[in-house]
Design brief:
The protein is α+β, with helices and mostly antiparallel strands and 161 residues long. It has one domain (23-157): Nucleoside Triphosphate Pyrophosphohydrolase (Alpha-Beta Complex), CATH 3.90.79. It has helices at residues 17-20, 69-81, 147-157, and strands spanning 7-9, 29-38, 41-47, 56-57, 60-62, 83-99, 105-121, 129-135.
Length: 161
């Protein structure tokens, strides 16, 4: 696509965040993300739930019991963005640990971001994404992007400032 950013938005989730948000877990949760490029643009989503609510980030989500990291990434990217990918090897593993005012662990994720190939699909925001967008190198500078996403894209892919 030439010109402006290809983007999709969705409003009103109708989701009960208390049951599926991952808040106050009894153990760390494993999650995946997929770094996908198309036409010199990277696929990002604006998060609709904490942690990182409202920030733009690599799309992804939880690994289900019995799934490989690649299977989870392929499923999550389809659910969250409508895009079909082939997930490859890990490019970054990191923790997200967020505590509440009393010091209790509100969220604890171990996240594995994978390199991925774009295979097709129609971009749309789904699952817990408020928006999904193909973002250019210049557009990313104007968005509130998570620190981890910005660092990964800069250091691994020389994408951004």
């Amino acid at each position: 696509m030439t010109g402006g950013a290809e983007t999709s938005s969705r409003k009103g989730h109708g989701t009960d965040h208390r049951s599926s948000s991952g808040a106050y877990p009894d153990h760390p949760r494993v999650a995946v993300g997929a770094v996908v490029f198309k036409d010199k643009r990277v696929l990002l989503v604006r998060r609709g739930q904490p942690p990182a609510e409202g920030l733009w980030a690599i799309p992804g989500g939880s690994v289900l019991l019995g799934e490989t990291l690649q299977q989870a990434a392929e499923r999550e990217i389809m659910e969250e963005t409508g895009i079909r990918i082939t997930a490859g090897e890990p490019v970054l593993t990191f923790d997200v640990v967020e505590r509440d005012e009393s010091g209790r662990v509100r969220f604890h994720y171990v996240i594995v971001d994978l390199d991925a190939r774009y295979d097709g699909g129609r971009l749309r925001a789904g699952d817990d994404a408020l928006e999904a967008r193909w973002v250019s190198r210049t557009q990313i500078e104007k968005l509130p992007v998570s620190v981890t996403t910005r660092e990964l894209l800069n250091e691994r892919y020389a994408f951004g400032s």
